[in-house]
Amino acid sequence: MIAEALEWLVTPCPLYVRRLGLLAESIAISARHRRCRRAWAPHLAATRQAILEAVARTPRRRTALIMGSGALHDVPIAELADAFERVLLVDLVHPWPARLRTRHLPQVTLVTDDVTGTLEAVARGEIVPARPFAPLSDPEVDLAVSLNLLSQIPSVPVRRLEGRVADSTLASAVQRLVNAHLSDLGLSRAATLLISDVERVVTDRDGLEIERTSLIAELPEPQADRSWWWDIAPAPEIDTRSSERRRVIARFVPSASGTESL
Ligand SMILES: C[S@@+](CC[C@H](N)C(=O)[O-])C[C@H]1O[C@@H](n2cnc3c(N)ncnc32)[C@H](O)[C@@H]1O
C-alpha cells in the first residue's frame, strides 16, 4: 500500500488524468498483475504473439504506434524496437517500470496523450465529441496497435459522469466515443491491429456464469480474427466465491487495401 501511494506521488502524468483515477487504475493493474501473474500469462502471451504476427505482416517498418502501452506487460517492446525505426508508445500514464525499460531504446518515444481527445472535458464534467487522433493519419506510421484500450474508452466517462448526466445521453455519448476510435483505426493508411477485451463474465465457484456485461458500451463486437480468455481476477482476487474473466478479440487489417488477416 505504501509503495503504491509512493508510486502515485512520483509518476508523472497530467492532473486531469489523476482526477479521473487513471493513474490509480494503472497502479492497481500492475499490482493485480503481480498477484495474478500465472492466471494472466496466457492472455499476455496471446497479446504479444498477435503483435509479433502483425509486425511480421507489416513489410514497411518506419513507425509503429502502440496506443494503450501502459506498463508494457503485453508489449514485446524489444522486438518492436528492433523491427521499426521508431516506436511511439501512447498512453495517459507511463509508469516508471515502462520508462526505465525504454530508457536505453533510442527508437522509442513515450507520448502522453488521450486517443479520444475528450477526457480533459470529461474531468470537468462535460461530454465533447471525439477528435481524430492525429498520429493515426501520419503517413510515416506503418503499424498502429490499439492495445486493450477500447474497453476503457466508455468506462472512464461513465465512472466520472454517471449520475451527473442523463443515462441515455451518457450511453449514446460513450457509444460514439467507441465508434470514433474504431473509425479512426479504420481510416488509417497504416496496418492496424485491434486487441480489446469486449465482454466480462463472472462465474461462481463451480464455473457457472452469474453475470455477463459488455465492455464496449453494448455495441456489436468488431469483427475478429481470433479471441481468447483473460482470467483477470480468479477467486479470491475480488471475491472468494466468484471469478472474473474477459473475452479478448484481435483483428489485424493490412495497410491500405490489402486483405490479409491473422
Ligand atoms: C488495460 S491497459 C492496457 C494494458 C497495458 N498495455 C499494460 O501492459 O499495462 C489500458 C491502457 O489504456 C490507457 N488509456 C485508457 N484510456 C486512454 C485514452 N483515452 N488515451 C490513451 N490511453 C488510454 C490506460 O492508461 C491503460 O494504460
Provide structural commentary:
The chain is of the alpha/beta class and 262 residues long. The chain has one domain (2-253): Rossmann fold (3-Layer(aba) Sandwich). 37% of the residues lie in helices and 24% in strands. It has nine helices and eight strands. It has helices at 2-10, 15-19, 22-35, 37-56, 77-83, 96-102, 119-123, 152-161, 167-187, and strands at 63-67, 86-91, 108-112, 141-147, 191-204, 209-214, 226-233, 242-253. Strands 1, 2, 3, 4, 5, 6, 7 and 8 form an eight-stranded mixed beta sheet that branches. It is globular, with a radius of gyration of 18 Å. The termini are far apart. Bound molecules: S-adenosylmethionine. S-adenosylmethionine binds at residues 22, 26, 29, 68-75, 90-93, 114-116, 119, 147-149, 152, 156.
Task: Describe this structure in a few short sentences.
The protein has 262 residues and is an alpha/beta fold. The chain has one domain: Rossmann fold. Strands 1, 2, 3, 4, 5, 6, 7 and 8 form an eight-stranded mixed β-sheet that branches.
Layout of helices and strands:
Elements: H1 2-10, H2 15-19, H3 22-35, H4 37-56, E1 63-67, H5 77-83, E2 86-91, H6 96-102, E3 108-112, H7 119-123, E4 141-147, H8 152-161, H9 167-187, E5 191-204, E6 209-214, E7 226-233, E8 242-253
Parallel strand pairs: 1-2, 1-4, 2-3, 4-5
Antiparallel strand pairs: 5-6, 5-8, 7-8
Helix pairs in contact: 8-9
S-adenosylmethionine (SAM) is lined by residues 22, 26, 29, 68-75, 90-93, 114-116, 119, 147-149, 152, 156.
